[in-house]
Amino acid sequence: MKLRDAFAAQADAFERAGSPFTARLFRLIAAKSDAALAGIAAASEGERPDTLPERFAAALHWLVLEDRDAGLSTVFPPHDREVSDAEIWMAVAAALTTHPRAVAAGLAHPPHRCDPMICGALAPGFLTIAALTGLPLALSQTDAGAGTDLWWDRFGYRFGPVPWGVADAEVDIRPEWSGPTPPIRPVRIAKRAGCDAKPPDLGRPAMRMRLLAGIPADQPGRLLRLAGALEIAREGGPIVEAADVTEWLTGRLSSPEPGLAHVVFHGAVGGGPVPEGRRAMVEVAGERAIPDAPLAWLRLEAERGSRDLSIMLTLWPGGETRILGRSDAVARRIAWQGWG
Fold this sequence. Notes:
By secondary structure, the protein is an alpha/beta fold. The chain has 12 helices and 12 strands.
């Protein structure tokens, strides 16, 4: 895939995701000549073209958030509707010349996918587990990233007309909801931990800014939610361990803990199916579960031939699996079914 084609393809994806400025930026770049794109190509040498558009947008957004480029700041949201395509490209081209090392650093590293909105799909699953087991929850998240999802109970939600969670929360999650209301009840989290190959250090302000830069610049609501979630996770302390998933999960699943419902959970893994080795590991641990120490596996799985995700729950003892509902890729829209 050529660099130009990668930007064109990602423009359509960001348009569908509700990010018109990013789509406009990518289409503008895709229309440029090879000579005009030389700066991006040089800064991204050795990287796959299809990985670059999102990284490039994040690199530019980081320069804006850090107030390092006045030219970009005048054409990025909320000022984008007041400027022409030519003015946007002029600012982008100047940034490539002025900040080549910063742009190259952004292109060399994929942005951490970190958006607390996904908890709009996970939280009703946790509520369901609490209702089915009647026990406090012990949380284990794989591919946890910054660990914001592990603090899902500190956010505020609205499932259709029904609220749950922290009133007037800075992290306010209100998906477009259809279907019945999930179990509305208090939930106690006894333990929470996660693992990731390279968890970001939330103690570093620069890292938190990098994570914020990964949110499209024209989605201020998502920026505010993520800023609030990062602060909650930072205050909670580092609970995401840099570890291999298999080794970490083996230790977490070594023995049931009476009086707690252990919940292993994750979002969509790389946009594809759950690795069979991981699936087998959780299923083997499930066979050791007892009524006073149940094991739940809550996950979002990509649906074949669709951009949607299935919200799936398997509960042991018994190992019964049900689809609790369906969500779009970023949990803006949820069609809930419940356990039944």
